[in-house]
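Hi Y.,

Following your request, here is the sequence exactly as I used it, all 98 residues.
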Amino acid sequence: MTGTVRRAGDGSPLPGQRIQIWAHTTEGYEPDPKSHGATLTDSNGVFRLEMPQIIPAFGQAHGHLAYDSGEFQAVFLRPVMSSSKNTSLEAHFVLQPV
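Below is the corresponding structure, written out as tokens. Let me know if you'd prefer a different format.
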């Protein structure tokens, strides 16, 4: 799973932001350690977390991504994959200051 995190208004990349990610995968369901994790954005606001293949849950292959800190408003995303055969999922955050 990959994506970018940018600031609302000026679109500047936000480095060092913690993104939480979880999904149903071929190696486990959302509560299992192999199916979730957290990562920080790099200097360009890009995050990446390698995980096993995402599989359908409740009819759709999807991931969950969350951001929550005191600096910006909390965000929860549930991007749906166009096909469970896809091997990657991309999502982007635009964060609004609190």
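Strands lie at 2-7, 18-23, 36-40, 46-48, 56-57, 60-61, 63-67, 75-77, 90-95.

Thanks again,
Q.
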